[in-house]
Structures are given as C-alpha cells and as structure tokens.
Design goal:
Length: 114
C-alpha cells in the first residue's frame, strides 16, 4: 500500500472498501450492471493493495464490507430471478402470438364462408 493517506490512517483502506461495497449494493439495486463491472475492478484493486494481515482494528470495517457484499449478492439473485421471470413471460407470449399467426394463415372463418 503506497497511499500516503493510508500511512497516516491504516484503516482508511478498509473504510474505502466499505464505501465501495455500499456503491456496489446501490448499483445492484438500480440494476446498473455496467457500473457493477467497473466497481468490481476497483474492488479487485483494493483487495490486491490490502495488507496480507489486516490490523485488528479493521475487523468491524471488514465485517461491514462482507455484510454489504452478501446483501449485494442477495440483490443480484433477486434481480436474476426477476429477469428470468420476464424471459419466461416473453417466451410464453411469443408462443401464443405464433399460435395465433398460424391460425390466421388460412384466413378467418368468415372470409372462407363469404
């Protein structure tokens, strides 16, 4: 960690992780997948810069970040489920429309009777 602010405050790095985890959760809630990808890259950078052995005082911050990550995962699972439900609905509607189109290919019964 070569950040001068981190040298002054060894917990600053872990506070940044919590802030980033909060931003990830908000992006997940808004369905901003592109932003999540950017934030994931920033998370990887922070994780690589973190000391191998965090100070004991970082424990609460690390637990807060971990809890936010779990909430983000849960939000993404809900979003995934909603998207899959939407896909199923579109598939069902497409099948129904195809069925109507096939019935209409021969003309309506009124047209055939006239």
């Amino acid at each position: 960690m070569s950040d001068p602010a981190a040298a002054e405050n060894p917990l600053a790095h872990y506070g940044a992780m919590v802030e980033l985890a909060e931003r990830q959760l908000e992006a997940a809630r808004r369905g901003e997948i592109d932003q999540l990808e950017e934030l994931a890259a920033a998370w990887e950078k922070l994780a690589l810069e973190a000391p191998a052995e965090p100070p004991a005082a970082a424990g609460p911050l690390l637990r807060a970040a971990a809890a936010l990550v779990e909430r983000t995962k849960a939000q993404l699972a809900r979003t995934h489920q909603a998207l899959m439900s939407d896909v199923a609905l579109v598939t069902k509607a497409r099948r129904a429309a195809r069925g109507y189109r096939m019935q209409g290919a021969g003309g309506s019964r009124v047209d055939r009777c006239a």
